[in-house]
């Protein structure tokens, strides 16, 4: 065994590694946008796995001051007090750069200086911001195989070498690297046992020949012992424009967004059709529809517990869910399938040729992975997009209610034209899913963007009145 390999095994298996990093992570983690446990104290850390992707030079090595950085991959469980609808323990993926001293250009990525343990005397930082380490990560993805707990996979197409990396600053629950404006690597920060839908569904869609979603070209996972999806590399749609920004610009200019909404409806229907062809489509009969409605009620009650402004609307909102249960009792059933799970304007891109693509199939990160991977009525995605048009309209001053109504109608028209199924033909199901989405939005805004809370609360007022009416 080489000296470098020996050092790798020693560091990866060191029981002192995480305790020495704990004080630094305790301060650094809550400041990250992708950390889901904000507002709750961290009580402990536990190590799931540690792998040296690039061996770390130790203090005392005469070459340490002149050699490059090390790259340490960690999966860490973060223990926090329990809150309603939240797990007490979350697992996070960390890619730590390690150097004796940090160059000034990497100062914003600093995590801290280690004082004891196997990294004593070294500086650790967010390795994704180091171009050398980011380039190394792409090199690993170019070559399938295993390294410690990590497993690297790749599609049929080769990935070019030497593409310059840059970090995207727009990510929230994850981190992304763009390589040479040709590929984008999404790094899942909060990880769950099981295959992430953002890998599973685009792979399924590529097998069906659906061009609305960029096909994965490489990915990496961990087996500890259950598989966890850690990152996915896909083509970067360079020059494509974000649907949310396009909508806001149309609002500001007083332009009609109906044709774009219609095209988005067609794109959504094409993706749903391909997913239905690729994966099972079970029927939601009385028991299943009752359980889905009961889940919506549970989420409503948990949200009302956390956001007092929601409490007066609970009876009206619950009526929307009860309507679905009543239809189930009368024998109504619906077809379920795999869906996007968190569809909104920000998850869409329009190319220079006007072609719309859907991205980010991870689903709502706050929901359990098993729930995000379960078949749902297509109405769930449709409701998400309808809510997004309302969000855009209410983000503009003055609020343009007619703009939102025209977009909602055009989107449903486009969906019906491409699929042969008009989502408005099932008003109870669509209203229930739109209500469930609005409840989720209230909880999210209350926790992360309180200034935005009036936006979903306006929908809550309307939906509660519609259900009781």
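Sequence proposed for the structure above (469 residues):
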């Amino acid at each position: 065994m080489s000296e470098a390999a020996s050092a790798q095994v020693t560091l990866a298996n060191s029981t002192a590694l995480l305790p020495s990093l704990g004080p630094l992570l305790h301060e650094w983690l809550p400041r990250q946008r992708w950390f889901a446990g904000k507002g709750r104290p961290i009580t402990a850390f536990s190590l799931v796995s540690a792998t040296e992707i690039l061996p770390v030079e130790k203090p005392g090595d005469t070459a340490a001051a002149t050699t490059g950085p090390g790259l340490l991959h960690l999966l860490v469980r973060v223990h926090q007090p329990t809150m309603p609808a939240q797990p007490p323990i979350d697992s996070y993926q960390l890619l730590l750069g390690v150097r004796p001293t940090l160059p000034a250009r990497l100062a914003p990525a600093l995590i801290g200086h280690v004082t004891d343990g196997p990294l004593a005397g070294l500086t650790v930082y967010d390795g994704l911001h180091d171009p050398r380490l980011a380039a190394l990560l792409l090199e690993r993805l170019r070559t399938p195989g295993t390294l410690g707990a990590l497993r690297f996979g790749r599609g049929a197409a080769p990935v070019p070498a030497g593409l310059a990396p840059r970090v995207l600053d727009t990510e929230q629950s994850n981190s992304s690297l763009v390589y040479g404006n040709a590929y984008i690597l999404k790094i899942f920060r909060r990880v769950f046992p099981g295959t992430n839908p953002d890998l599973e569904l685009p792979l399924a869609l590529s097998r069906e020949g659906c061009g609305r979603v960029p096909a994965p070209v490489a990915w990496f996972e961990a087996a500890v012992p259950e598989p966890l999806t850690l990152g996915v590399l896909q083509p970067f749609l360079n020059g494509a424009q974000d649907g949310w920004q396009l909508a806001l610009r149309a609002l500001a200019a007083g332009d009609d967004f109906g044709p774009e909404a219609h095209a988005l409806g067609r794109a959504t229907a094409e993706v749903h059709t391909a997913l239905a062809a690729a994966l099972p489509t079970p029927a939601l009969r009385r028991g299943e529809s009752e359980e889905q409605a009961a889940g919506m009620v549970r989420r409503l009650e948990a949200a009302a517990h956390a956001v007092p402004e929601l409490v007066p609307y609970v009876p009206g909102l619950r009526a929307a869910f009860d309507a679905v249960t009543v239809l189930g009792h009368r024998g109504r059933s619906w077809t379920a399938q795999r869906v996007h799970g968190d569809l909104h304007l920000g998850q869409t891109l329009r190319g220079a040729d006007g072609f719309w693509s859907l991205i980010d199939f991870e689903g709502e990160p706050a929901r359990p992975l098993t729930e995000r991977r379960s078949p749902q009525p297509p109405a769930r995605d449709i409701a998400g997009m309808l809510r997004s048009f309302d969000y855009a309209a209410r983000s503009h001053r003055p609020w343009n209610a007619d703009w939102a109504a025209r977009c909602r109608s055009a989107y449903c028209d486009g969906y019906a034209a491409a699929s042969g199924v008009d989502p408005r033909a099932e008003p109870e199901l669509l209203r229930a899913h739109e209500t469930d989405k609005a409840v989720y939005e209230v909880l999210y805004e209350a926790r992360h963007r309180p200034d935005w809370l009036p936006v979903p609360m306006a929908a809550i007022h309307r939906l509660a009145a519609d259900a009781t009416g």
